[in-house]
Amino acid sequence: MITLEEKLASLPPERQKHIRELTQEMIAQEMTLRSLRKARQMTQVSLAKRMHIGQESVSRIENRTDLHLSTLNKYVEGIGGKLRLVAEFPGSPPVTIRSLAALGDGVIEQDGVAPTQEDSKHPQGFGLEAPKRSIKRNRRRRRLAFRRR
């Protein structure tokens, strides 16, 4: 059996260049999460195993209109990618946020240069566990309030 790399290596250089250019164009297109997963030739089940969640959770993620950045990052890493977050402001060069974990520290870089001092105003990151803890805490508070009545 011949691999994709072997097949590409056997093609003429101009054909290889054309394929690379088409690949970059396809990557540059906007895609839904579902189409990204399918382009990576993954099923919801295989992605769910990589993310350590159930298949139904992958389906819900793909159908959501609003996601936590940490959930999106986990999804993109699950399909073999790396998520980059870029903020664009009028009259300024794009600002790349170094990593999602760095969001919690306020660490950003502009033109690929990280700041010398980290801003520690935001001690918490964007973890997936925070909402679960909040839900449990709220349930406990409601139970206690009900018992006091």
Estimate nothing, just give the exact number of structural domains: 2
End-to-end Cα distance, whole Å, is 73 Å
Work out the number of β strands: 3
- The low-confidence runs, each spanning 5 or more residues with pLDDT under 50, are 103-131
Could you tell me the radius of gyration in angstroms? Answer: 21 Å
Give the overall silhouette: elongated
Main sheet overview? 3 strands, antiparallel
Please identify the structural class as seen in this structure. Answer: mainly alpha
- Percent helix, as a range, is 40-55%
The secondary-structure element order is HHHHHHEEHEH
Share in β-strands: 5-15%
The number of helical segments is: 8
With strands numbered from the N-terminus, the spatial order across the biggest sheet is: 1-2-3
Tell me, rounded to a whole number, the average pLDDT. Answer: 76
Describe the structure.
This protein is mainly alpha-helical. The protein folds into two domains: about 1-30; about 45-149, no CATH class. Helices cover about 55% and strands about 5% of the residues. It contains eight helices and three strands. Strands 1-2-3 form a three-stranded antiparallel sheet. A hairpin with a 7-residue loop joins β1 and β2 (about 95). α4 (about 45-50) packs across α5 (about 55-65). The longest helix has 20 residues, at about 130-149. It is elongated and about 80 Å long.
